[in-house]
Specification:
Blueprint (H helix, E strand, L loop, with lengths): L7 E6 L10 E3 L2 E5 L2 E5 L1 E6 L2 E7 L8 H15 L8 H9 L3 E6 L4 E10 L4 E9 L8 H16 L4 E6 L2 H10 L2 E3 L8 H5 L7 H6 L8 E5 L7 H37 L8 H6 L2
Parallel strand pairs: 1-5, 9-10
Antiparallel strand pairs: 1-2, 3-4, 5-6, 6-7, 7-8, 8-9, 10-12, 11-12
């Protein structure tokens, strides 16, 4: 199995007050393997004078697997959103397959992670599990990781539709910057294995009550054969950001309401005490 080496090709300078890159230079380092030209890319991202390297994960990065899964779970709980749980072994498998991107500092501190999943015989690809360590959030690192995993997905599966499910406005913005569009659930993969992964999510009952047609997450899709340019989707998001904010709030109210009523009835008219209540702070 070939894993790209870490050859820096892009330097982005950012700080906490201005998370957008101030400069970007790109130099490609092609390598050839079995007649296939592979452009190995790493990104060196400067945050608070720390160099953060964003690259395809290698075998040595398996040591971060438990840290990654623990942070995924604690972050979801803090946000009050659902998540399909992943084990350290699952993360290590993605690293073995060359389907993971990791961000670390030069001294080896873990910063962020994301991985690729494929469905419906590689017809659909999901960039899943995007997570950034708390100390490095709101610095632009998440966007750089997302760009890296998106490029890796396009390289490995050029004809696949790339999709994602998110409850966060920040991730929606990152996705639209890449050319994703909001879509209905019917446009996503119908692979049962994908939907089975939602069973560990706290919102699974909501998903099934809507017959997998809607849930707390917003579905987004990039279709390589039929898509707008990133500049167009980026502008669309900018023009409609208030509408997206209202949509997310409406989903929380509309989709959770029946479950909260059920909890109220089961508690003799008292304040709901279910897991949904504790996670969403209603």
């Amino acid at each position: 199995m070939y894993l790209p080496s870490a050859a820096p090709d892009a330097v982005l300078n950012a700080d906490r007050t201005n998370p957008l890159p101030r400069s970007l230079s790109v130099n490609l380092y092609p390598q050839t393997k079995s007649g296939l030209v592979i452009r190995t890319i790493s990104i060196i991202y400067n945050v608070d004078n720390q160099e953060i390297i964003i690259r395809v994960a290698t075998q040595d990065d398996k040591k971060y697997s438990t840290i990654i899964t623990d942070e995924m779970e604690s972050s979801a709980a803090a946000r009050g959103t659902g998540i399909a749980k992943r084990s350290p072994e699952y993360i290590e498998t993605k690293i073995d397959e060359g389907k993971a991107v990791i961000a670390v500092t030069k001294d080896g501190t873990w910063v962020g992670f994301c991985y690729i999943e494929t469905w419906s015989h590689n017809e659909y690809v999901a960039n899943s599990g995007l997570i950034v360590a708390p100390a490095f959030r709101k610095s632009g690192v998440a966007k750089a990781i997302k760009q890296k995993i998106f490029n890796l997905s396009r390289s490995k599966y050029p004809d696949a539709k790339i999709f994602g499910l998110t409850t966060g406005l920040a991730v929606m913005k990152i996705n639209t910057d890449l050319g994703y569009e909001p879509v209905t659930y019917s446009e996503l993969t119908q692979d049962e294995a994908f939907w089975a992964g939602c069973k560990s999510c706290v919102n699974y009952d909501i998903l099934m009550s809507k017959e997998r047609k809607n849930c707390m997450c917003t579905a987004m899709l990039f279709d390589p054969k039929d898509h707008y340019e990133p500049e167009e989707t980026k502008e669309y998001f900018k023009e409609n950001v208030k509408g997206f904010e209202r949509l997310l709030r409406f989903k929380q109210w509309k989709l959770l309401k029946p479950f909260l009523k059920k909890d109220k009835g089961n508690n003799g008219g008292s304040k709901p005490k279910s897991l949904l209540h504790h996670l969403f702070h209603f």
